[in-house]
What we know:
Two copies of one chain form a homodimer. Chain A is an all-alpha fold. Chain A has two domains: 12-82, Arc Repressor Mutant, subunit A; 83-205, Tetracycline Repressor, domain 2 (Orthogonal Bundle). Helix content of chain A is 70%, strand content 0%. The first copy, chain A, has nine helices and no strands. Chain A has helices spanning 14-32, 39-46, 50-57, 60-78, 88-101, 105-118, 126-151, 157-180, 187-204.
Amino acid sequence: xxxxxxxxxxxxxxxxxxxxxxxxxxxxxxxxxxxxxxxxxxxxxxxxxxxxxxxxxxxxxxxxxxxxxxxxxxxxxxxxxxxxxxxxxxxxxxxxxxxxxxxxxxxxxxxxxxxxxxxxxxxxxxxxxxxxxxxxxxxxxxxxxxxxxxxxxxxxxxxxxxxxxxxxxxxxxxxxxxxxxxxxxxxxxxxxxxxxxxxxxxxxxxxxxxxxxxx
Amino acid sequence: xxxxxxxxxxxxxxxxxxxxxxxxxxxxxxxxxxxxxxxxxxxxxxxxxxxxxxxxxxxxxxxxxxxxxxxxxxxxxxxxxxxxxxxxxxxxxxxxxxxxxxxxxxxxxxxxxxxxxxxxxxxxxxxxxxxxxxxxxxxxxxxxxxxxxxxxxxxxxxxxxxxxxxxxxxxxxxxxxxxxxxxxxxxxxxxxxxxxxxxxxxxxxxxxxxxxxxx
DNA sequence: CGCTACTTACTTACCTGTCAGTAACTGTGC
DNA sequence: GCACAGTTACTGACAGGTAAGTAAGTAGCG
Lengths: 215, 215
């Protein structure tokens, strides 16, 4: 294991150093946010100066973009081999993710902080977050349509997209509540409950009785 | 309407000025976030210097706290007379709020930005946001229990609290998606759909068939 | 006159980004 | 296997900007 405090005998390779910086930046931006987290914070964690960080990434914005790309790459590698699940398996996967996330506070915080910050005016991560939502909505809507087809339930695409937005929304919203008050919210359980509820509503079809009469 | 650019004939009273500053601070913190929004930004909108703002509020933290209190006060005044709805009416109210919010981007952004930022380490608004969630969860859970009672459906308190968390989560999560991509998400419709789904799931009882078999 | 609401001017503290210099490593010719 | 040249990965110092907060002075109003 690399020791960050004592000087190492051999200088790490360029790729290694970049990864170290990316990991540190993920932690810093994740815990303090992009704006409040400084290059000095990141550099300290790697044991170099902030100028060293800039040597590798050019600017703070570029570092953020690299962090986001890095996350994408790591996420994809993690799913490598195991094809992206579709149909009902996708929802099982989402529930599992929530369960796993309950033990990965740092990652959840990073995601929530960056997502929340991205809605500020002119934030450099806005495009990335927007794209991520678009892709996710598409995948979930597709899985929903697939499940509906398998069960012979009529499902309009617009309705599938509504449900997809809701699934993503409830996952993100619960994460924020859980981060602020872990004792008050059981991330895994509440997420599973909500996804289940939305799924049931979609599969019940549009003719299902409304609980709240149209006002 | 007060004119911020040209000097006014009479100096506003202390209370008036404080309200002006609070309104300006709400806009600034709402659009840029607390950390990125500066006292100079706030002061400019009122037509004074940042030291003038500090004269009234002492520090930036105290200004934020005053903004949060201010929001609470305004929200309560807005509901004055009209008792806080309970039972099914609460959910109708939530859906109506979402519909109204679709035309109040600024307010939604302010709420989302502050909530998202609050999960960063040591954020001064964390306690306020946490408290807000706790109160909301309680109110929604109570309303759910009331509806269940009226309909003769068995509902455990824990399950009601799960559903309450989910309702809040989905509302917040959808707001973020809508802010980033208003064309992709119909805030009012998706919110109504999700609340309806969660409500239906709760009222169907725990014995209702699961869509996703326990894994 | 005396209080309040400021402004002006300043301090202190960061933060990003630049730049010149340096030490370590890498490749090459021999 | 080793000297030398070139490249890379930094450091340290600093420029330029912006932030919060303070203190002393001033203008207007009761």
